[in-house]
Amino acid sequence: MAEAAARLPVTVVVIAFDEAIHIARCLDRLVPYVERVVVVDSFSRDDTAAIARAHGAEVLQHAFTTHAAQVNWAIEAAAATTPWTMRVDADEYFEDGALAALGAMLAAQPGEVTGVTLRRKFVFRGRWIRHGRYYPVVLLRCWRTGAAVCEQRFMDEHMVLVSGRTAAFEGGDLVDHNLNDLDHWTAKHNRYATLAMADAVVREYGLAADDDRVAATGGAARRNRALKHGVYGRAPLYLRAVLLYVYRYVFRLGFVDGKVGFLFHTLHGLWLHLLIDAKIDEAREIIRRDGLDAFRERLAERHGIRL
């Protein structure tokens, strides 16, 4: 185990709910190497909180509303006193040697660098998904304490800097490897599709100011958001999902990822986006027929989403 004096000057915040299958793996790659790990648990029904405490993390509990709100609450509640703060999901872990390399990088950064982007490697059913424009996914996950917040969105929320600029860490990857089965995966992504639909309705009907602060930052997140709200967002429903799938699977070589890659790119690149479009289509029909207020009540009653 790393000596406390040699640990990275980082407070890591981990958001968790029913993550007993993942939390020990995540924490074993964090706790020995950073000054502090805080798990914010939204009252898990399994042993997530107990496992987290047993593996050396502090545990706070807070009721979940949206992921963005939970992240921002966690950052504030953790009240980090370390120079740097980092966000990691419970089903993620760092590759061997990555945190040591990150520590060396953080120590060398000038004051104007207030955020560090990490490369995320995605593993699906035990296989690294290398193609289809899915590696690397570059995300702002580490920042000088107080220098970043999470966008307030239902889906596709990003950490954004309030000052300074980012630097890219390339000394290892953050691995996203969920161990749950396909029933869990499809249920989770069905929920994601509903959240994406809610974001689309908010923008389309002007129900709230669209939190698009990532547009003021650099890097892949800004480019992806511009494409999503620009070219993709203006394309016809359903057709855009098919074209995205062809782009990812054919032109960005998703087929090279083999059988597992075919399943992933088809489920994530086609099925999910068709489902999002179907939910947007259904929402528009309900709003035309019953009115916007009735749709908002329906969304709150059935999904707990309050527009």
TrEMBL record:
Highest taxon of source: Bacteria
A Pfam family matched in the record: Glycos_transf_2
Every Glycosyltransferase 2-like domain range: 11-138
Classification via Gene3D superfamilies: Spore Coat Polysaccharide Biosynthesis Protein SpsA, Chain A
Keywords: Transferase
Gene Ontology MF terms in the entry: transferase activity
Family: Belongs to the glycosyltransferase 2 family. WaaE/KdtX subfamily.
UniProt-listed PANTHER family: GLYCOSYLTRANSFERASE (PTHR43630:SF2), POLY-BETA-1,6-N-ACETYL-D-GLUCOSAMINE SYNTHASE (PTHR43630)
Protein name: Glycosyltransferase involved in cell wall biosynthesis
Species name: Oharaeibacter diazotrophicus
